[in-house]
Design a protein that fits this description.
Layout (H helix, E strand, L loop, with lengths): L2 H18 L12 H11 L3 H4 L8 H6 L2 H20 L4 H7 L1 H12 L7 H22 L4 H26 L1 H4 E3 L6 E3 L6 H22 L6 H24 L2 H17 L2 H5 L2 H20 L4 H8 L9 H10 L16 H8 L13 H33 L3 H16 L10 H10 L19 H8 L12
Antiparallel strand pairs: 1-2
Helix pairs in contact: 1-9, 2-5, 2-8, 2-9, 5-8, 7-19, 9-11, 9-12, 11-12, 11-13, 11-20, 13-20, 19-20, 20-21
């Protein structure tokens, strides 16, 4: 099959999926295409790159950006604001329910003042503000559960087959070369194998969760069709993950699937606190072993999955970054560390040549926003975890997916920087942000996703659960 014919077949199949999808929600708003397009860009490439442009390989390129990209982002942000205004979004209630997130975003804006590149930092902050606005478009939908499910399903339909198409028929786009070894690597719609791994991770988690959540109703004709479609996309996702060879995404996908299975088990349904206590207990144990007893947990995990114990030179990268002179309390300013003379110096070092991230989300936040910014981020993560646990207590099926995303993002950021303009961060926001209830049924489960007992529990939810989220 010629590349042109393969592209035409992919387009026809995509349109057929979108039009005749058995899981299609007929009442979903057209406004949902705004977050879909935004997240597609984050997961893949910038608009200028899709049109043939390349990321600059100089420090100045990271400062200037691209006019086309700025224009596209501005249009999407304005559309998101217009949609929220038209829906009379309850901003005061939103800020009250998301104090930790509001403080983190506000502090990031204030940090622009001490950045050496204040205008560049502000532009990046404004662009990243779009992450929150487009997610609010989905969460403020009168049918938020259906909207978020549709959002992730559309992204899977758009990204996974396109990755396979580019990898097989357009290797000039779908493959890249390692900067250090020169070996060819599959990247699909993304710009690196790690980016492709993140796409597979989110897609795999969603289709796995959706299958588990619908399994009890698998004998119904429509549900059976949806499960078969989910399994087909799971198979494609696992094949792509094998091609990407991203160990971080593999391990995180396994962790996320285990969390989903545990959340849907009979033992967890009877006692959900056992799972919600086990996850932070394991994280704390990891921190105690790593920092209290000097146990190299990261190296042990790397060896277990067949990788170098120094995490492909990441430990060397972290040492160099920690040795740079930054303000430990407030950092260098929002998204300002990888700019100017500091970036020039880092690119002159063998270990950090060509890098523009720390390969550690927590370190990345520390370098840009200091201890204060990192503390605010941790506060948001703790608050969102508490909200997810409350929803899990009331047998919300989506809460199991949210819990898996929360757990995965924490582990993912150990070796990748995703607490910023990243697909994993925006994905987490869709599960961690609490919004006002916009419809009477917004907190009720859907029969295809929750059993009868859960439906009865949600029908009798106490008023304070309205502050938990939108599940």
């Amino acid at each position: 099959m010629s590349p042109s014919l393969a592209l035409f077949v992919w387009l026809i199949l995509l349109l057929a999926l979108l039009l005749f999808d058995p899981a299609k929600e007929p009442k979903t708003s057209w406004a949902l295409w705004v977050p879909t397009i935004w997240m597609f860009i984050i997961a893949s490439r910038l608009p200028a790159q899709w049109l043939g442009g390349q990321m600059g390989l100089t420090a100045e390129a990271f400062e200037e950006g691209n006019p086309l990209d700025r224009s596209v982002f501005l249009v999407l942000i304005l559309l998101a604001i217009g949609i929220l205004v038209a829906r009379s979004f309850k901003w005061r209630s939103f800020f009250a329910r998301n104090i930790a997130l509001t403080m983190f975003i506000s502090y990031a804006l204030v940090s622009v003042c001490w950045s050496d590149f204040a205008f560049v930092a502000f532009k990046r902050w404004f662009r990243d503000l779009g992450n929150y606005l487009v997610i609010l478009v989905a969460l403020s939908d009168p049918r938020p559960m259906e909207a978020v499910r549709t959002l992730f399903r559309r992204l899977g339909y758009l990204l996974i087959p396109l990755c396979l198409l580019l990898a097989k028929y357009y290797p000039g786009i779908g493959m890249d070369y390692n900067n250090w070894t020169g070996t060819a690597e599959y990247c699909g719609v993304a710009t690196s194998k790690n980016g492709l791994g993140a796409v597979c991770l989110v897609s795999g988690l969603f289709f796995f969760w959706d299958t588990i959540a619908r399994w009890s109703n698998r004998r119904e004709s429509r549900t059976g069709q949806i499960i078969l479609l989910n399994l087909a996309f799971l198979a494609m996702t696992l094949h792509l993950l094998h091609l990407a060879n991203s160990q971080t995404s593999r391990v995180c996908l396994l962790i996320g699937c285990l969390v989903i299975l545990a959340a849907h088990s009979k033992a967890c349904r009877r006692n959900p606190r056992s799972l919600t206590i086990a996850i932070p207990a394991l994280l704390c144990a990891n921190l105690i072993l790593a920092f209290g007893f000097g146990v190299d947990i990261k190296g042990m995990v790397a060896e277990a999955v067949g990788r170098n114990p120094n995490l492909t030179d990441r430990t060397l990268i972290w040492k160099i970054l920690l040795d740079t002179h930054t303000n430990p309390l407030v950092g260098t300013g929002y998204e300002s560390f990888w700019l100017g003379s500091r970036l020039d110096w880092l690119w002159q070092q063998k270990e950090t040549a060509g890098l523009n991230e720390a390969h550690d989300g927590y370190l990345e936040v520390y370098l840009n926003l200091g201890i204060i910014g990192l503390s605010l981020l941790v506060g948001f993560l703790i608050t969102s975890y508490r909200n997810i646990c409350k929803a899990l207590t009331y047998s919300s099926s989506f809460a199991s997916f949210a819990l898996a995303l929360w757990t995965v993002v924490l582990f993912y950021n150990i070796t990748e920087a995703a607490f910023k303009w990243h697909f994993m961060w925006v994905t987490l926001l869709s599960a961690a942000i609490a919004v006002p209830r916009y419809a009477e049924h917004a907190l009720r489960p859907v029969s295809a996703f929750d059993d009868a007992n859960a439906t009865e529990q949600f029908a009798q939810l106490p008023p304070e659960m309205e502050a938990v989220g939108w599940w």
